[in-house]
């Protein structure tokens, strides 16, 4: 019966199901959707692949199997190969996701060239995207330097603080502090901690309040956790908890997050929340049972709905079985959540390779 399968086994089966349903011959690596059809692989999803690296590193942490780390390394190589030999593209958030994954790879002992790649991306992003429009902060992409959002500034804060602790270089800390100040003042509700997506997308100074996404909440949780790790100031943890809680209150039914859309990118949003919720739970083990309960209840619902007795094929709404074409981004969110549930079940610190 599904209920008898341990959390670690569930995570492992979700990882294997990614390959079973979406695995494709090189250089594609994964079909964008299952079942794949004409034109479904026309888009190169750089940032989805960056999260594959993180997912494989989660499996490496759980199992200790070097083969899992090797899979993560091969995924980085695949991104660079398909990106015409370059780490860089037009989207600052895309590049930062890869930089965060490369940083973890280096922490996992895969080689200092991955740390160098993370630093190269950081340098490129700050050189080409950091500007004073609406306050010192990072733009979303090179073609819209006036448009600022959480998906770009959140990963920049997290990566900058990790590099600051690695190197002791003030430039990383200074950028992190400025980006955090801007994000907190511009897109975080001071009463509730709820995080909006972005501002000035159309050059009109307006905030996109209609885009209420889990991954924005996760990024601010992660930014606050990294500031706590860097400074030791517990106020940052209090802010992280507040945002983690308001995400559940505003974006879930109390058990699972509701469907955020099926455009592909949306499938990954929940996974970002779970990844950085895991970081919060790692620095405060046992201190937030309600948040841990949400991880367990939501992943139990996912399992009951989407495990067919052999494989797990996630849906965008974890309350229902998956039907029709499903993007592998959706499966990645399921993997991240199940890996977090496994870490909690086994008494491990989630995402340990961050410093």
Walk me through this protein's architecture.
- With 355 residues, this protein is mainly alpha-helical.
- It contains twelve helices and six strands.
- It has helices at residues 7-22, 46-63, 66-82, 92-107, 112-129, 150-167, 170-187, 214-231, 234-251, 269-283, 289-306, 328-346; strands at residues 33-34, 130-131, 137-141, 144-149, 198-199, 326-327.
- The strands form two sheets. A four-stranded antiparallel sheet has the order 2-3-4-5.
Summarize it.
By secondary structure, the chain is mainly α. It has twelve helices and six strands. The chain is globular.
Q: What's the topology here?
A:
Elements: H1 7-22, E1 33-34, H2 46-63, H3 66-82, H4 92-107, H5 112-129, E2 130-131, E3 137-141, E4 144-149, H6 150-167, H7 170-187, E5 198-199, H8 214-231, H9 234-251, H10 269-283, H11 289-306, E6 326-327, H12 328-346
Antiparallel strand pairs: 1-6, 2-3, 3-4, 4-5
Shape: globular
- Beta-strand percent range: 5-15%
Oligomeric form: single chain
Number of domains: 1
The count of helical stretches stands at 12
CATH architectural type: Alpha/alpha barrel
How many strand elements? Answer: 6
What class do helices, strands and sheet pairing give?
mainly alpha
SSE topology string: HEHHHHEEEHHEHHHHEH
CATH topology: Glycosyltransferase
Instruction: Give the strand order of the largest sheet, numbering strands 1, 2, ... along the chain.
Output: 2-3-4-5
Largest sheet: 4 strands, antiparallel
Give the CATH level 1 class. Mainly Alpha
Q: Please tell me how large the radius of gyration is.
A: 19 Å
* Mean pLDDT over all positions: 96
Proportion in helices: 55-70%
Low-confidence runs (pLDDT<50, min 5 residues)?
A: none
């Amino acid at each position: 019966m599904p209920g008898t399968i341990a959390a670690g086994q569930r995570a492992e089966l979700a990882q294997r199901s990614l390959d079973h349903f979406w695995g494709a011959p090189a250089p594609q690596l994964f079909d964008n959707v299952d079942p794949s059809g004409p034109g479904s692989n026309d888009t190169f999803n750089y940032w989805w692949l960056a999260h594959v690296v993180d997912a494989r590193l989660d499996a490496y942490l759980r199992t200790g199997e070097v083969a899992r780390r090797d899979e993560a390394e091969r995924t980085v190589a695949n991104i660079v190969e398909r990106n015409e030999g370059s780490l860089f593209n037009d989207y600052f958030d895309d590049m930062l996701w890869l930089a965060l994954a490369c940083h973890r790879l280096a922490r996992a002992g895969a080689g200092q060239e991955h740390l160098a790649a993370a630093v190269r991306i950081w340098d490129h992003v700050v050189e080409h995207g950091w500007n004073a429009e609406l306050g010192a902060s990072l733009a979303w992409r090179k073609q819209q330097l006036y448009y600022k959002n959480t998906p770009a500034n959140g990963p920049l804060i997290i990566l900058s603080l990790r590099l600051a602790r690695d190197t002791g270089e003030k430039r990383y800390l200074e950028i992190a502090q400025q980006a955090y100040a801007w994000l907190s003042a511009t897109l975080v509700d001071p009463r509730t901690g709820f995080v909006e997506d972005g501002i000035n997308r159309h050059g009109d100074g307006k905030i996109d309040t209609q885009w209420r996404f889990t991954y924005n909440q996760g990024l601010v949780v992660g930014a606050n956790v990294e500031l706590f790790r860097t400074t030791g100031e517990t106020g940052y943890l209090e802010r992280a908890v507040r945002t983690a809680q308001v995400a559940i209150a505003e974006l879930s039914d109390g058990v699972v997050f509701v469907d955020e859309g099926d455009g592909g990118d949306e499938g990954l949003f929940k996974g970002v929340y779970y990844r950085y919720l895991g970081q919060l739970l790692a620095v405060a083990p046992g201190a937030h049972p309600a948040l841990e309960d949400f991880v367990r209840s939501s992943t139990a619902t996912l399992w009951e709905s989407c495990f067919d007795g052999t494989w797990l094929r996630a849906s965008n709404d974890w309350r229902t079985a998956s039907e029709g074409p499903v993007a592998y981004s959706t499966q990645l969110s399921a993997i991240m959540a199940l890996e977090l549930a496994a870490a909690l079940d086994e008494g491990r610190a989630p995402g340990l390779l961050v410093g």
